[in-house]
Fold these 2 entries.
Entry 1:
Amino acid sequence: MKNNFLSAFGAFICISILGYFNSYQEENLWLIAPFGASMVLAMAVHESPLAHPKNILFGHIFSALSGVLIYSLIGISYISIGLGVGLAIFVMMVTKTVHPPAGANPIIAIMGAKGIGFVLMPVATGASFIVLFAIIYNKLLKRKYFTFKDWSRLPDSK
């Protein structure tokens, strides 16, 4: 029960901080819905390869790039949304950065007609914040989250 509370509390703190930063912007610059799902992985199943910092950061970035690319090529349609998500999955699998919450980024990018700036802010900036928070928080709790030697031992996504 203590672990459940600590996981929920960590997610509360991280998302609240991102929400606080976001409250000072006219546009949604710090917070996107997939970050809530990323927190579930980073806090509740922190030993999962899907919660690894590499997966959180690059999964979000590659997925957002997939959506921006597809939108710039063919605009908004049911086909472009499907292609965006499909491309994101393909790229995450090829790069071994699968992070399920990031699969929503192409939908946001395409339906929101986002440009390359979306990849930097909120995606890369917010994902970086989540990763740094998760490393520090899990370290303070003495949880096994990740070590730099783990970067090379991620499971293959064949």
Entry 2:
Amino acid sequence: MPSLFNSSAAVTDYLYPSIQPISYSQQQPLIHYLIAATLFAVYGGQVCPLLESITWWQLFIPLLLIYLLRLPLIGFIHKVEYQKRVSAQFYLDIGLFLLAAAGLVGANLYLYDAPWHSNMKVLFGMMMLGTFVSVDLALQQEKQLAYELIEARRELEVGQQASSFVQKFALMAGVLVVSISLVLFLVVNKDLEWLLVEGVKLSPEQARNSILKEFAFITVVILAYALLIIWRYASNMSMYLKFENNVLQQVAEGNLMVRVPVASQDEFGTMAQGTNAMVESLYAAQNGLKETRDATIVALASLAEARDNETGAHIQRAQLYVKVLAEHLSQHPTHSDYLDVETIDLIYKAAPLHDIGKVGIPDSILLKPGKLTDDEFVIMKTHAQIGADALQQAIESVSENAFLRHAQDIAVNHHEKWDGSGYPQGKQGDDIPLSARLMALADVYDALISQRVYKPAFSHDKAKEIILEGSGKHFDPDVIDAFVACEDAFVEIARNLKDEH
């Protein structure tokens, strides 16, 4: 399946117009480490004699050194492949906290010969803080990585062994529950030992207040970290869903040149791949239908022109004239809103059907080598309505189809004139669809420069003179201005597709 990032830059820009890249501050890990150190210093002294005996800056220096050790290691991790980057950072942060805990336990044993339960509390407390910090930093890095992948026009590979977002969230929820339970158990056990074994002389009210403060402190810390991590998970999930919804919305509006970035190796990555496969399939099917439509147009137009063997490459030339005029008028303030890229393409594709109604004109009139009588000309003029009626039957047999509407507008109106003297309905001015006004000039110009049994081929200058005389009468003045601006392109088209007699 073709990757989004093999597409043009314009497609990528169009894909995420409402999503702004995030900025991952390099100070966030330092803030996390400092907060963890502060929390440990505030509470750790109650369970660890070492922490109780040293000043705050003596605790911060080793933790700062641990953070400084993180900097070069993070630089190395950012050079590894995208697939392993987030997990590598997670294990690095966990490892650094374990290293800090091991240092504190070692110092505790060496200086104070601390009992095993004190060391286990230090180890568990540091491990718990390390887990919270590591998970939060990893989730931030995951979001940053998603935008880096988009900017680098890369996609992650999602294999059969892909990780699971649901499982990771469930595991983290389990860790939170177990952590809260263990911490509260240790606190209760410590407070009971403090009151019963050590025989602290406090009044019941003082003991109650002391225990409640300790419980409140621990509860606030754990809940704050838990809510932060849950919010990070929700934020990342929202990002992936936003990627998905943006693409689905574009597809619903008819734009199949979009893809969902595969920026994770979990359910969202699998979902993105599935959506991209669906869009690719729709795009291929749509292209197949367009190719079939275009081939049918050529066949129908050729069928009509085959009965009028003097027109040669008229279809191709007129089609290109119309496109040149439309592209120029797309810069005109009056017509720019209507003539967008899609509309111009539809008009260009529909132009060959302008004379499809000629299939309903008798050969005696259509192939007459001389000038038509008045009665014959009346019959000839019916080809515009015949073509429109045939296209109306096609329109009624399908759902709303912009291409058929443009084709019908051109077929029935391309002989209308700006001043209202045309046929079949005598429309005038802006009542004539712009596509038909473009076709009118293209059709007349090509008839003028082409040889017919009743006239020689005129030069470009002669044809231009006749067309300019029709400004405000036969032709829309804006279309005339576009013709004058693009006349070199008309000459080039006529030369490249010149009739061979």
